[in-house]
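To the wet lab folks,

You asked to see what we're planning to order before we commit. Fair enough. Below is the target structure as tokens, and below that is the sequence we designed to fit it. If anything looks off to you, flag it before the synthesis order goes out.
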């Protein structure tokens, strides 16, 4: 996490960030139902998903322009790649409606994701979630989407 970028974005809208972290710390995350949970309409919402991790060659990097992601694994484990956006190449152009673009990169910089850790990705970060760590396994993940003004 880029601490300077987080500080800058946090102070632009501290109430929204506080609400996001209060949600994560005040819930039994394992009990959350799959789907979208709105906290502040389109400005702050939570996606809860279950999926099977994938092979590295089947996963592209992704990036967003409107939202920061707070990603938390509730169960299972995976690897998440992260690189600066300027070290990637766009393969699927930006889709404004879904706030996503897909990218490739020569480098790799993986972090292990497991329950008890969270990852924070900003608009200058390309990230590659859902990659299997050892075996393809079922995971449950929460992604809090925080609109960046």
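Sequence we intend to order:
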């Amino acid at each position: 996490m880029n601490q300077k970028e987080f500080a800058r974005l946090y102070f632009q809208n501290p109430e929204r960030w506080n609400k996001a972290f209060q949600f994560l710390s005040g819930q039994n995350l394992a009990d959350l139902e799959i789907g979208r949970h709105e906290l502040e309409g389109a400005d702050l919402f939570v996606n809860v998903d279950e999926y099977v991790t994938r092979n590295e060659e089947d996963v592209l990097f992704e990036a967003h322009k409107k939202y920061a992601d707070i990603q938390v694994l509730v169960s299972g484990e995976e690897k998440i790649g992260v690189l600066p956006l300027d070290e990637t190449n766009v393969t699927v152009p930006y889709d404004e409606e879904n706030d996503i673009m897909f990218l490739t990169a020569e480098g790799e910089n993986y972090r292990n994701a497991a329950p008890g850790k969270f990852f924070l990705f900003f608009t200058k970060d390309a990230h590659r979630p859902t990659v299997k760590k050892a075996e393809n396994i079922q995971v449950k993940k929460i992604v809090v989407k925080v609109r960046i003004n």
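Structural context that might help your review: The chain has a mean pLDDT of 94. The first helix runs from residue 3 to 12.

Thanks,
Computational group
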